[in-house]
Amino acid sequence: MTGEDTAPMTSDKQRLIVQGMEVAVGERATGYLTIGGGEPVLKAPLVLLNGVRSGPRLALLGGVHGAEYCSIEAARRLAMETDPAALSGQIVAVPIVNMPAFEGRSAFVSPLDGKNLNRTFPGRPDGTPSERLAWTVFKDVIEPADVLIDLHGGDLFESLSPYAIYSTEGTSEVNDRSRKLAAALGLPVVAPGGTSGSAYETAARAGKTAVIAEAGDMGRLEPRWVDALVSGVRNGMRLLGMLAGTTSRSMDQQWARRAHRVQSPAAGLWYRRVDAGQRVTTGQEIGTFCDHFGRPLHTITAPADGMILWIASSLYLSKGAALMNVVELAPPPQGSGIRSSEV
Ligand SMILES: [Zn+2]
To answer: What distances in angstroms separate CA 165 from CA 65, 186, 246, 303, one per listed residue?
Structure first.
């Protein structure tokens, strides 16, 4: 999408209908997305914004993981505080996608089927509750959109430093647009990514500009991280030509050139010595696994010089659980500059 196509809308593009819910030009509507295809029938809050000028359709998701509260609050605020009369294009927002996980206060997985929704896309129309949810969100929200911004953060048991991910699973043109949008979100680190079954990878494969923004952690509703996500998405919307104004550039943003994901080597008590955002050097002691009596079993060290992007914060970890992600950082690559005419 270009940022130049902002003529007043006169065509079919001005209609915005999702599951029979229609919103007039210049208006906002609220309702619920219905996820049928089996029992239980699920619902998720849905907000439609129909701008007064033409522009891209943005699918905005929060709460794919139901306890990542800063992302949920940011998606809700963006949906309810953005003025449709100042909008070019359309927003289809689902601020709490995974209501079973949200209401169940469940980390990572749905309490209904034990599945991680962000490993379940595009889902199935007649599958488990998470598969049906993924299918409905993909067919009714993501597929008709031009751009996906999926808001996340550290879950209940994760210490996390804010970052944005762009998909590398689309065409080179789609990946380039996604990379520029991820940079425009203004978070301190930008990382390439491709996670099988995630909303953003599935969207990128379907030709959508697709990014994740991550901020906040450990079940806390922190205003500064909500604000960071809200202002970051607004900056991204300026890049997309959806909001007026110039896209600002974060001057001290760094790029992840290599990620080292470490898994738990054993089940046991996990005593960490570092937080997310901390710089570490190769071989530095990160923490210790102990048995149920506190006797040391394994020492975990940093696999590279870099920054802890996220690290498990729970006292218990099962064998093979996600323990931490250390990223090697580099300055922004050449050509990562963002100009609205390029997106
Ligand atoms: Zn998440």
So the answer is: 16, 12, 22, 21
Instruction: Report the pLDDT value the prediction gives residue 283, as an integer from 0 to 100.
Output: 97
Q: How far is the CA of 152 from the centre of ligand 1 (A)?
A: 4
CA-based angle 209:197:229, to the nearest 5? 50
Please give the pLDDT value at position 249.
Answer: 79
Residue 243 alpha carbon to ligand 1 centre in Å: 26
Contact 174, 201 (CB under 8 A): no
pLDDT at 250: 76
248 C-alpha to center of ligand 1: Å? 26
What is the pLDDT, as a whole number, of residue 14? 87
* Low-confidence residues of the chain: pLDDT under 50: 1-10, 337-343
**Residue 257: CA atoms inside 13 Å, Cβ hemisphere, count?**
10
Tokens of 187: 């978070």
| Ligand 1 centroid, distance to 153 Cα (angstroms) | 5
Q: How far is the CA of 65 from the centre of ligand 1 (A)?
A: 5
Triad 226, 229, 235: Cα angle to 5°: 140
CA of 159 to the centre of ligand 1 (A): 12
